[in-house]
Amino acid sequence: MSGTTSTAPTSAPPTPRTGSANPLVAIRNNLRESGIYIAFVVVVLLFAVLTDGVSLSPGNITNIVSQYSYILVLAIGMLIVIVAGHIDLSVGSVVALTGAVSAQLVIGNGQPWWVGVLAALGVGLVIGVWQGFWVAFIGIPAFIVTLAGMLLFRGLTQYVLNNVSLSPFPEQYTTIATGYLNGLFGGYGYDAFTLFIGAFAVVGFVATQLRTRLAKIRYQQVVEAMPLFILKLVLVGLVVMAFAWQLAHSRGLPIVLIILGVLILVYSVVMRSTVFGRQVYAIGGNLSAALLSGVNVRWVNFWIFVNMGFLAAVAGVIFSSRSNTAQPGAGNSFELDAIAAAFIGGAAVTGGVGKVQGAIIGGLLVGVISNGMQLLGVNQSLQSVIKGLVLLLAVAFDVYNKRRGGVR
Questions:
Q1: Which of 33, 94, 120, 292 has the most crowded CB, counting CB atoms within 10 A?
Q2: Which domain, by its residues, includes 167?
Q3: pLDDT digits 0-9 by tens, 3-28
Q4: Which segments cross the bilayer (predicted)?
Q5: Is the separation of the CB atoms in 316 and 94 below 8 Å?
Q6: What CATH number is given to the structural domain containing 381?
């Protein structure tokens, strides 16, 4: 027996893996995740210069929030659908139908405003159950089911409205999309509450990003290069606080922005930290492996479409509230804007990849481009061309990354 004692080797703390020792290569390898944030800041600054600062005026920023809020709500649900490997072409028609049902109850039958909201949400859930049943349990591809839904729900909208518009909604209803919170912390010449919420959002974003980065390092996963990671945090923080500063000097914090913020927070947690979220990524990433792992694919797909119906109803309430009317043609092409937001924000065409924050930034990017071109007086047809090219380039970038990584 030897007198020497053996010492168990101590494990060194995990070191970050950025994919390459070359900073330029590391940055290139991480552009898929961080590029959208940089692109957003560049586009915002570009239009600020081209419009002599008008695009960053308090009134215009408030207008962007109000004008594109319902698209961002749809983008959250569409992101989940796309991550699971599906697509939903019916959301624009669902927006129209839920707004029509709400209008008939509130305007046509004199019901309280909240009855219209609850009815719209209920109709959205029923639609989600209907489409989820055909996709999950009958096995019809989501493309076909939602294409049929697009026609079906558009026809029902025309039937509910009898092919005429209904307006106006009561003030309480329109406040959902056009109301503001102002002066909660006292008068300072600006709304301090809005600045507080902006700072809170930045702190939450930084904490979430740090937690995600540490978790990836702990499990030896590839993370962004530290300079790029810090740059992303700084850029997002500056943009959010500049955004909050402008809102604080306008009419304060839009109520619809609070609704959107809650949805972003909830769905970010759901997709990142719950069993359901991990199962959605598993189904989209590798369906066979998900089945072998015991994932109940049918029920997950079912709830994905129930959720999409609910969020489409939320968007329908916001849109009808903002426009103060329900129209048979409401929601046209909304599904295309939501799909574009998800793909531009980093969702993969083949599924399994994408984040809620990315879809929101993608939607805001489209909104800023559209708003900037409107301020510059760009022809409407040319605006569609430019937005189409932006979507095409985003998907091409996704395909390029997969081929570079050896995925065919």
A1: 94
A2: 51-182+251-402
A3: 455 454 555 556 555 555 455 555 55
A4: 36-56, 68-87, 113-130, 137-156, 188-207, 228-247, 253-270, 302-319, 340-369, 381-400
A5: yes
A6: 1.10.3470
